[in-house]
Design brief:
The structure is a single chain. This protein is of the alpha/beta class and about 350 residues long. The protein folds into two domains: about 170 residues, Rossmann fold (3-Layer(aba) Sandwich); about 180 residues, Glutathione S-transferase Yfyf (Class Pi), Chain A, domain 2. The chain is built from ten helices and 15 strands. α4 packs across α5. The structure holds adenosine-5'-diphosphate (ADP) and magnesium ion. The site of adenosine-5'-diphosphate has 14 residues, from α1.
Length: about 350
């Protein structure tokens, strides 16, 4: 998969710019606050229809502008796509692919695949289960658009059930409709869980292998799926939801289900989150990100776009060298504040105040 051209108009601090990345490594260099991350954010926006750093998408519109436009042309082995995304204060988000409107964000999923690695992704290893669920959901959505639709339905049903749990206090007669939502959550939840189980098994195999290569084979990294309901077939889930109904009514929220799943990361059997050193956590995060690349390649037959935002300086030489070897076949966008990593083969772009200058390359 190859990005040929990215054009931004009134996107963040870019009034207008055209970015023409090449195959291989594209080094994006600039001082702080010049627009490096903004450029990667625009690519991410084209893959997922949202920002990786804010849920308030209108923040991406340049100050004082009525709307932001992002245009991206990419090539896959057998197809090519022209994406057009428009964000407007008045009309919200509009997406077109090859001239056709995509009314549902799910239709965007998987058209372009990307893996982003930024320092905050250490949270996959360090933070609570919600971060790892988010990771699972993103990866599964971009390789299986059907998963994204299931997830949307599940989250909608969950919201409805939670609203109902609150309403029953004042309207006890509404309790009669709870089984409908239990049924929905059980059916959708068991499907999500099956996807997640298969994904974690494959991720674990790849991550363990990548980790062994980065760390020199000293420790064993394991990814294990820990579903909130151990036997995750629909009937079991339904029974669990029924049996926790009284508790849910008291707490006015759904306490059990797929939205409470965990994906555990262990190193030689110990939770990295609790016991790993900083170095171990970094290596594990890198191994997982590289496994994402491998997984998408396995699923789609093509390497995704890789974006490395400010991470090179955090890796020691051994990991940097390993990473460089691994990404040779992958179109990669790397940001950096300096040329310390002066890879001779990389195409270089200089960013200053929302303008791209590639004439000095
Ligand atoms: N909506 C916006 N309109 C104009 N400028 C913005 C907007 N959002 C952020 N910026 C500016 O973008 C810059 C940060 O860009 P960023 O890509 O995060 O920097 P870096 O090069 O350090 O990665 C800041 O100067 C910020 O003021
Ligand atoms: Mg940045």
């Amino acid at each position: 998969m190859l990005i040929k051209k990215l054009e931004l108009t009134n996107f963040r601090n870019y009034a207008h710019c055209v970015f023409l990345p090449e195959k291989g490594i594209n080094l994006i260099v600039g001082e702080n606050a010049q627009g490096k991350t903004n450029l990667l954010e625009a690519v991410f926006f084209c893959c997922f229809g949202r920002s990786h750093r804010t849920s308030r998408e209108k923040e991406m519109i340049a100050y004082d502008a009525p709307n932001a436009l992002v245009r991206l042309s990419c090539e896959r082995t057998e197809t090519a796509h022209d994406l057009f995304l428009r964000l407007s204060h008045v009309e919200g988000r509009r997406i077109k692919c090859d001239g056709q409107p995509l009314p549902r964000i799910g239709e965007l999923m998987g058209l372009i695949n990307c893996v982003l690695f930024a320092p905050e992704h250490l949270s996959i290893v360090k933070d609570g289960p919600a971060e790892r669920r988010r990771f699972l959901d993103m990866e599964l959505s971009q390789t299986h658009p059907a998963y994204f639709f299931l997830l949307q339905q599940y989250m909608r049903a969950l919201r409805q059930r939670n609203i109902l749990l609150k309403s029953i206090r004042e309207h006890p007669e509404m309790k009669a409709t709870l089984p409908v939502w239990n049924e929905q959550l059980a059916s959708l939840g068991s499907k999500l869980m099956r996807y997640r189980e298969a994904f974690c098994a494959r991720l674990s195999r790849l991550a363990s292998q990548n980790h062994r290569e980065i760390s020199g084979g000293r420790e064993d990294l394991l990814v294990s799926y820990r579903p909130d309901c151990p036997a995750f077939d629909q009937d079991e889930l339904f029974k669990i939801l029924e049996s926790t109904q009284a508790e849910d009514l008291r707490r006015m929220t759904t306490t059990r289900g797929a939205h409470r799943d965990e994906m555990a990361l262990t190193l030689d059997g110990r939770e990295i989150r609790a016991f790993g050193s900083q170095g171990q956590q970094r290596t594990a995060a890198l191994a997982i990100k590289l496994s994402e690349l491998d997984l998408i390649r396995e699923e789609t037959g093509e390497w995704p776009i890789l974006m490395l935002d400010d991470v090179m300086s955090e890796l020691d030489e051994r990991r940097q060298t390993y990473l460089l070897e691994r990404i040779l076949p992958v179109q990669t966008l790397v940001t950096s504040t300096s040329f310390a990593q002066s890879w001779p083969s990389a195409r270089k772009f200089f960013i200053k105040g929302g303008a791209i200058d590639d004439s000095r390359a």
